[in-house]
Amino acid sequence: MGRTRVKICGITRPEDGRMAAAAGADAVGLVFHPDSPRAVTPERAAEIRAALPPFVTAVGLFVDPDRQQVAQTLAACPLDLLQFHGGESPGLCGAFDRPYIKAVRVGPDTDLGEAAQRYGADRLLLDAYVPGQAGGTGRTFRWSLIPAELASRVVLAGGLDADNVGEAVRAVGPYAVDASSGVEERPGVKSAVRVAAFIQGVRDADRG
């Protein structure tokens, strides 16, 4: 098994971005969905982005945005990667000259193979299906629903924390794992202890 990448999502403060990077995170997520308790403005996101060291990816999370919102955000903050969590079309997702991740909320009837074929995204982020919520629910889903042939393209999210991430990595073998509420002191404020423990759990699983 190769090294599993780690994304810490819902960063709202420059110091949390620096902390996550220092702990070994490969990417940090910046939320541009106004209804989220972890939402940031493009200007705040630019401050966080500027605080990151080289080679740490800044990911912008959107939920059913219009093109103007994404374009204005990119003008203010040089995001490396886009993440779409709503019902966006493949055409919108691919319209910004940036690689992108498409989030899919996984329920018992979700056809992940169809989603992968439809979007052709760089990666699929898989989160728990909770009616009426776009993500960030802190709930897990049945990892056995993920086809083995898709695992190398999967960013696994949904209720991950230091206690279960090792099991998740061993069960799925994902490209990356994504944590938000599971590494927080409170919504939008990350815990250095929990972030470090989460990343250590991933590394221990990678070593078998």
TrEMBL record:
Pathway listed: Amino-acid biosynthesis; L-tryptophan biosynthesis; L-tryptophan from chorismate: step 3/5
Keywords: Amino-acid biosynthesis, Aromatic amino acid biosynthesis, Isomerase, Tryptophan biosynthesis
Stretches assigned to the N-(5'phosphoribosyl) anthranilate isomerase (PRAI) domain: 6-200
First-tier enzyme category under EC: isomerase
Keyword Isomerase found: yes
Reaction catalysis annotation: N-(5-phospho-beta-D-ribosyl)anthranilate = 1-(2-carboxyphenylamino)-1-deoxy-D-ribulose 5-phosphate
Gene3D superfamilies: Aldolase class I (3.20.20.70)
Membership in a protein family: Belongs to the TrpF family.
Stated name of the protein: N-(5'-phosphoribosyl)anthranilate isomerase
Source species: Thiohalorhabdus methylotrophus
